[in-house]
Write a structure and sequence with these properties.
With 414 residues, the chain is α+β, with helices and mostly antiparallel strands. The chain contains eight helices and 24 strands. Strand 1 and strand 2 form a beta hairpin.
Length: 414
């Protein structure tokens, strides 16, 4: 077993070092053209059932239920959900961005349990901004992947399928192993930074087409952690959207707040410039040069704006879990807000920094931020390297509703 794990780790490491930009660029362009042809064919065939189409929505439900070998357990899994705004069946060009309020509620228990998490991988074309589409690689059909919530002392069991299980994943299974390999996703996996063990679980969780694998770990260190795919070429899998966060609450739980939100920044490397129309291929050349075209919160431009903005009321205490899934650090700032409590680097057990304006979040890291909504209005969440916000997409909205607070904020007439 140790030999097999060692060989697998060596294979992953060697695969991750593979470059070959010119051939990769040609292959990515060809794959994009092939995907475009497939999409056109799907438009011509409208006989797809609602169940098949709904797979792309990837909404989440979490519930607790008794488990036979344990006194109790929690299951966190994805179930197809209808589109919120229209109720319409979703096509491949459906909503890719996870809503900021799509996360499990705070835990309300004092004993450790088995937490079972069902994940699947999916490669799907979705809108990055109006007129621009991209083939994302995802956990459960959204970017970021599901927010996983556990408590220190819990046993956490991760189940990972390559493609959505059952009939809903039939379209994914139609692709041959060779086609998956040529596209760079013959295997997917998961490395959770909350795991104490080799590869964060990745050596145990390399899943090929049609496979499912599982592993279990004990959550021993409270904190807010990133998880991501760790299959060759690892940076490519991450850059295409395969990341999420896992929270390990302390045994005593977290302090009560009124609102919690889940935000992840990612950098995306398209063949075309920012805003260039059409289906965009992934550019490995730009990724290796560390020159992304897009910096995005939760998967796409304006994913967390307008109807999908974060919302709270004056006087409410807000908690943000903010992470960086991919390769470039974020300079996270909320224009018009001050962080009452900032827990750096996911270390939620450390004393927080007070009254913070901006924080740097490293790639593969996360922070927990708490503050109180004091003045109504629209607040902007940005990467304060502001060209990323204004020109490349790293912009979200927080809407605070309530009565004006003239003692805190008002215009003065001349």
């Amino acid at each position: 077993m140790n030999k097999l794990s060692g060989l697998l780790l060596l294979t992953i490491a060697l695969g991750s070092l593979t470059t070959g930009c010119s051939s990769d660029e040609s292959m990515n362009k060809a794959n994009a053209e092939k995907v475009a042809a497939i999409q056109a064919e799907k438009v011509r065939h409208k006989a797809m059932s609602g169940g098949d189409m709904a797979e792309h929505e990837g909404g989440q439900m979490q519930h607790s239920m008794p488990m036979s070998e344990h006194s109790g357990g929690e299951i966190q899994h994805a179930m197809p959900m209808p589109d919120e705004s229209t109720g319409a069946v979703q096509s491949d060009a459906s909503e890719i961005g996870r809503r900021a309020d799509d996360l499990p509620a705070p835990l309300n228990r004092t004993q450790p349990q088995l937490v079972s998490v069902d994940l699947y991988t999916d490669e799907l074309v979705a809108e990055m901004m109006p007129g621009v589409t991209y083939q994302y690689w995802t956990y459960n059909g959204k970017v970021p992947g599901p927010f996983i919530r556990a408590r220190a002392g819990d046993q956490v069991e991760i189940h990972l399928n390559h493609g959505k299980p059952g009939a809903a994943g039939a379209a994914h299974s139609e692709h041959t192993s060779t086609e998956h390999a040529n596209a760079g996703h013959s295997a997917h996996s998961i490395d959770l930074h909350a795991v104490v063990g080799p590869g964060g679980g990745a050596p145990l969780m390399q899943v090929g087409q049609g496979e499912q694998k599982s592993f279990r770990f004990k959550a021993t260190h409270p904190g807010i952690y990133v998880y991501h795919c760790a299959s060759p070429h690892v940076p490519t899998h991450i850059a295409n959207g395969m990341y999420g966060m896992i929270l390990v609450e302390p045994e005593q739980g977290l302090a009560k707040v009124d609102r919690e939100f889940y935000v992840m920044q990612g950098d995306f490397y398209t063949g075309g410039k920012y805003g260039e129309k059409g289906l965009q291929a992934f550019s490995k050349e730009k990724m290796l040069a560390e020159k992304p075209e897009y910096f995005l919160f939760n998967g796409r431009v304006n994913s967390l704006s307008g109807e999908r903005a974060l919302k709270a009321k004056v006087g409410e205490k807000i908690r943000l879990f903010v992470g960086v899934g991919s390769h470039v650090a974020s300079n996270f700032h909320i224009i018009g807000a001050i962080f009452d409590n900032l827990y750096l680097d996911g270390a939620i057990m450390n004393p927080p920094l007070k009254n913070v304006q901006t924080t740097v979040i490293a790639p593969g890291s996360a922070v927990m931020i708490e503050f109180t909504a004091e003045v109504p209005g629209k607040y902007l969440l940005v990467d304060h390297s502001l060209t990323r916000a204004i020109d490349k997409g790293a912009l979200a909205e927080l809407i605070i509703e309530g009565a004006d607070q003239p003692e805190l904020y008002q215009q003065v007439a001349h």
